[in-house]
Amino acid sequence: MKKDLKNVQDKRIFVITHIPPRDPRTSVTNNEIPNYINEATSDSNWLEQKLNNYSESKSMDYGFQNSQEADKFEKLMSTYHVDTVYLSHIHSYLEYTKDDVRYLITGGAGVELLTKNSYYHYMIAKMSDANTATIVELPSPASNYLARYGATIQLFANAMYEENPVTVIFIIAGLVLLLISVILKIYLAKKNLFDFLWKWLRDIIKFAVKRFKELFSKISKS
């Protein structure tokens, strides 16, 4: 990285990577996943409790795990006059400046949001004006696992249909045909059982209709 930065000192420099050198939430809000603020209780949805048990640590530093490496990275950014560092990893939108270098964290594409009042989003940045960034807010589900996973599935499904509608239609048609074939296979394998159940259900309906007529007739005569 040092070599690459040296070779582009006559240009505006933008660095794009994933994990930020430091987790800035320590100065913004508590390192708490919103789902834990109202943690699943004993009377909550059973599946929500199970998903909660398998989630990440309740308080986690999402920056570099080695502070010396973090210092080294930030020093490189400032020494070689990097304009903006674009980051992700923390599920939120955060922005800070250190040693005249702007750091933008945009991680609102899915999964649990990690800061209070966060929302799903994407960012539009114009290289001609690095001081401006447009944050486009997306629908953000409630901070629980089932709602979030449902929203993620819906988002992917809509994106797939927008990109390849014909393919999606063929996939749906194939799944429907597969379901029909499975139902037919089960029916043919258990035909005698289904025939018995159908006769049993038909006899119950006939008896219910007959009994209803008898009762209705007695009520009419009285």
Poorly predicted runs: 33-37
> Residue share in helices?
40-55%
Strand order of the largest sheet: 1-2-4-3
* N/C terminus separation: 98 Å
Number of strands: 6
Order of helices and strands: HEHHHEEEEEHHH
As a percent range, the share of strand residues is 5-15%
Which CATH class of the largest domain applies here?
Answer: Alpha Beta
Can you walk me through this structure?
With 222 residues, the chain is an alpha/beta fold. The chain folds into two domains: 2-141, Transcription Regulator spoIIAA, CATH 3.30.750; 150-221. It has helices at 2-6, 34-37, 46-53, 67-79, 145-163, 165-189, 191-221, and strands spanning 14-16, 84-87, 93-98, 101-106, 121-125, 133-137. The strands form two sheets. A four-stranded mixed sheet has the order 1-2-4-3, covered by helices on one side. The N and C termini lie far apart (98 Å). 16% of the residues are buried.
SSE arrangement:
Layout: H1 2-6, E1 14-16, H2 34-37, H3 46-53, H4 67-79, E2 84-87, E3 93-98, E4 101-106, E5 121-125, E6 133-137, H5 145-163, H6 165-189, H7 191-221
Parallel strand pairs: 1-2, 2-4
Antiparallel strand pairs: 3-4, 5-6
